[in-house]
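Protein modeling request. Please complete all fields; requests missing the sequence field cannot be processed.
Requester role: graduate student
Desired output: 3D structure, token encoding
Chains: 1
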Amino acid sequence: MPLLPITPKAGIVTNGTTYSNKGRWTDGDLVRFQNGNLKPIGGWEKIQPSALVGTPTALFTYSDNFGNSVLAIGTRQKVYVLTRNILYDITPTGFVTDESNDPLGYGAYQYGQEDYGDARSQSGLLFDTTSFSFDNWGEFLIFCSASDGKIYQWRPHGGGTNTPDSAGTAITNAPTGNLAVVVTNERHILAIGAGGDPRKVSWCSREEETNWTAKATNTAGDLQVPTGGRLIGAKKFQQDVILFTDTGIARLFYNGNPFVYGVADAGTNCKAISTRSIASSGNLLSWVGENAIFVYDGRVREVPCEVHDYIFSDLNYSYRQTIAGGHNSNYNEFIWFFPSTDSLKPDKYIIWNYMDNVWSVGSMDRGCWVDQGVFDYPIACDNSGFVYQHESTTLNNSPNLGTSVPFCQTGPIEISNGDRYVQCNQIIPDSEANTLPGVTLSFTGRFTPLGAETDFGSFTFDNDGYTDARFSARQVQMKVTGDTTQDFELGNVRLDVVTRGRR
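Delivered output (503 residues):
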């Protein structure tokens, strides 16, 4: 019999039953798909030895006028800036945090749950853990948190060439009670939900951060968003600002004088489940909805998601607003971290390679992410407050990896069309056998879909690319396990089989 290709097409599928996903990858961790081949993701390194105070919820990067890279970090207690290898606590005086909003402790959750008198380990209450919005106005950092509502600025050279401001300061005359802040391409600072009005967007006069009163002699102004919902956040997209509401999105666009900005509906029934889930590639916006993944490139589309069940069937819905998204430009990926059923913070992830339209899944403790560009690598924070650069090392050098290893497993693969059982004599990779250091293959075989399982292997690849194997089955599941110390790339694996009898 000819050599039998056994490697599924790229991408993990979790929707449906195991047997309905026969011939596909159905589970994995710490792996991605590139050019159709299976590879491990890159490892990560701490860029700060100590944990930050508070749970990180937002990251932002930009360069100051001297070319120094600036990393801004917002936690549920503090605001930090990392620049010139120095970490600064720039939390404004009197800043209102949301750390006290954790819905745990005595009296939380449903009556009669857990032991009487003990503080609850989980909560049935939904609490909106707010996140920061950051932007830069020239070299000035602009930020706002919905828990506080004020718009602040921080200057990297406010006290001189090498002396930054010691803390952020509230912008004079700016509205308070805001949800978020954005700086437009026209250099207006936008207040989202200005003054506590959930439909209002206000902006300062161009280049005048303290001038917010509209006059014939300036470009300050405001408008009401004409949608059925209230504002929950905003994201810059190309020349526009996309306003997110609790029903959908609207597009804020530059009109010029006298009205300066206009607004138009851009999509309905596409609410973001978490404003932290909104990620941008430059040409795309993508976010997690209430029961779907959405993408915007001038129009809103629901993304067919082959791992829909992985996230939405295992989501701690009470903590859905902690879902965090990011973009990894080197690999054309959007990544989302979400809290699984038994977790109060993001502990699992899904990855969408939007160029190849394939998905990956896995487990990882991350609460916010920012793409490379200003810094050489993507940067992310875990929920304990540690800051990491990603894709910069091998997995075995990665803190808190534990016993995790990169792996990917298939659903049932029927060999010889499933009507005969076959005997496998050899496992043969494609011509790239030298790309498989440390890779182990194992198989679970059955003679019927519901029959007893038998494990075969583990098999490693010899230098000549051929691996002897002896097992018989009508269908098998294959598991690929990688070595954390080195990279690998799995192409097309083939089996040398001999057909045996019918059942």
